[in-house]
Amino acid sequence: MKKSLLFIASILFMLSSCKEGSADKTERSGEPDVYNVEDDNAKMNQAMVDAKNSIDEFKNALVSDNPSFEYFTIKQKFNADGGDEHIWVGDIQLIDNDFMGIIANEPVYTNKVQLGDTITVNRANISDWMYYDDGKVVGGYTIRVIRDGLSPEEKAQFDAENGLIFK
Fold it and tell me: Which residue ranges does the record assign to the DUF2314 domain (predicted)?
């Protein structure tokens, strides 16, 4: 459990969290960047709808016991002053049809949770999910929106720095 949490934290440098109601990114010394997205961003809003609508795909993969599937994470929205913050929850387990996991990123804007807290995911507030299938990202809808908005040079740097491979 600890191994996967550390792995996720180390590779998701740019996916730390997202805050609605802002623009650009917040850089933090020694911490992952936080990408701020306007809450009226149509592509990001559609990505969150797509993620929420496909959560059963995530659930089926989680319970499949497929050895090629690993590093299951869900991004959940938390209330914060001035907007909402979307934070990754790692080490996901399914317990009595509820997703439970550990806050995998240091929150910037919300005080509702802290890094390392164990929570039950609020399904109504799911904004993304992802896992690896043989080393390739499945899901990651909001990540793809951010990545697709990068210049070719930034995209190459992003890919080189975090090692994410998209299906």
Answer: 42-166
Characterize the bridge pairing of strands 83-95 and 118-120: unpaired
How many other CB atoms are found less than 10 A from the CB of residue 4?
17
CA distances from 157 to 27, 150, 161 (A): 16, 10, 6
pTM, whole model, 2 decimals? 0.80
Residues in the chain: 167
The span from the CA of 131 to the CA of 139, in Å, is 7
What distance in Å separates the CA atoms of residue 117 and residue 6, rounded to the nearest whole number? 14
What pLDDT, in 10s, does the model give residues 35-57?
566 666 799 999 999 999 999 99
By the 8 A CB rule, do 13 and 164 touch?
no
